[in-house]
Specification:
about 150 residues, mainly alpha, about 55% helix
C-alpha cells in the first residue's frame, strides 16, 4: 500500500493540484440576455429555467465545483455547446437556434444530459412536469417534425 501511494497516489495528487492552474474551463461568463422567446405559458418558462437554463441560456448558475479541474473543463464545454445549439437568451438573434428539437430531446431522455439532475436535484422533473415541459416546448418552439413538414 505504501508503494502504491508513493508511485501512484502522490503523483496523482500533485497532478490534480497542478491542473488547477491551467486556464481551461474557467470562463464563467454570462453574456447579456439579448432576446427571449415568446413562451406559451409561464409554466413552460419556469420548468425550462429549472431544468434547462443552466446550459441553454445566458443565466448559468456556476456551482463551486465548476472551478475545480478537470470537472470545470467538462462543465464549461457543456455550457458552451448548449448555448451554441439552443440559447433562449439570444432568441431570434443567434443565427442557428435548434429550439424545434428541444421537445424531442426531452421526450427521448437525451436532455438533460446524464448526471445533470444528480448535481442539480431541482432540475429533476416529475412525469407530469416533464410532459408539461414537452408540450410547452412544442407550443413555444414548434417541433422538428413541423420544421421538416414546412421544408417540404
Amino acid at each position: 500500500m505504501k508503494s502504491f501511494m508513493k508511485y501512484v497516489g502522490f503523483p496523482a495528487l500533485i497532478l490534480l493540484v497542478l491542473i488547477q492552474f491551467l486556464p481551461i474551463g474557467k470562463d464563467h461568463t454570462n453574456p447579456p440576455v439579448l432576446a427571449e422567446p415568446m413562451w406559451d405559458s409561464q409554466t413552460t418558462k419556469q420548468l425550462f429555467e429549472r431544468a434547462c437554463a443552466d446550459c441553454h441560456a445566458n443565466t448559468t448558475k456556476w456551482p463551486w465545483y465548476s472551478n475545480v479541474a478537470p470537472i470545470s473543463w467538462i462543465i464549461q464545454e457543456h455550457v458552451e455547446d448548449g448555448r451554441r445549439h439552443f440559447n433562449i437568451s439570444a432568441w431570434g438573434v443567434q443565427k442557428r437556434n435548434e429550439g424545434n428539437e428541444a421537445a424531442e430531446e426531452v421526450e427521448k431522455g437525451e436532455m438533460p444530459i446524464f448526471g445533470y439532475d444528480i448535481t442539480h436535484p431541482e432540475a429533476k422533473l416529475s412525469t407530469h412536469e416533464k410532459e408539461a415541459l414537452i408540450q410547452g416546448l412544442k407550443a413555444t418552439f414548434g417541433s422538428k417534425q413541423e420544421k421538416e413538414d414546412d421544408d417540404d
